[in-house]
Design brief:
Layout lengths: L3 H18 L6 H13 L6 H9 L6 H13 L7 H8 L7 H14 L1 H7 L5 H11 L5 H16 L4 H4 L5
Helix pairs in contact: 1-2, 1-3, 2-3, 4-5, 6-8, 6-9, 8-9
């Protein structure tokens, strides 16, 4: 309430959303994205454009929102090329569980020897990072679950040695 600029931007974004979906049509996920967009957007004239993209469910994740904010920041001139915008934000990109499984499988295969040697002391963030870069628009939680599952399948449950702290 104290931040008037944010309050007015958020009110405008919600009003825009309610025009399309009605008062009860804005769910929690959409509201969270609208708030995040309103609080991070520097150029107020892009608010309606981005709010429409969120309301039309073209932008559905924080990752896509970050890409959208970067895009409008780097393209201040009107009009915005819709096709370029949608490509830059991953609009319509659907990553299947099979694609995630395959990507994680190939990353684990690449590091299999070192994984077997170091077991659970191996830096799992490395596996996550490589899988994420292979599937830019995939849900990070799903990738993490897949990495955990495949590592468990490869190495089996943690042993006493795995639970010990790694010596410095």
């Amino acid at each position: 309430m104290k931040n008037e600029a944010l309050s007015s931007a958020l009110k405008e974004a919600v009003t825009q959303a309610q025009r399309v979906h009605g008062a009860s049509g804005v769910d929690k996920a959409m509201g969270t994205l609208l708030y995040s967009m309103a609080s991070r957007l520097k150029d107020a004239k892009r608010l309606a454009f981005l709010a429409d993209s969120i309301v039309q469910r073209k932008i559905c994740t924080e990752l896509q929102l970050a890409a959208a904010l970067d895009f409008v920041k780097s393209h201040p001139q009107d009009p915005i090329n819709q096709k370029e915008f949608e490509e830059a934000c991953g609009v319509g990109m659907v990553i299947t569980p099979e694609q995630i499984e395959d990507a994680v499988e190939s990353v684990i295969k690449k590091h299999k020897e070192q994984l077997l040697k170091e077991r659970y002391h191996f830096n799992m963030g490395l596996l996550m990072g490589e899988a994420r870069s292979a599937l830019k628009w995939a849900d990070g939680k799903v990738i993490k679950n897949e990495v955990d599952m495949q590592v468990l399948h490869l190495l089996g449950p943690k042993t006493e040695a795995d639970l010990e702290k790694k010596p410095k």
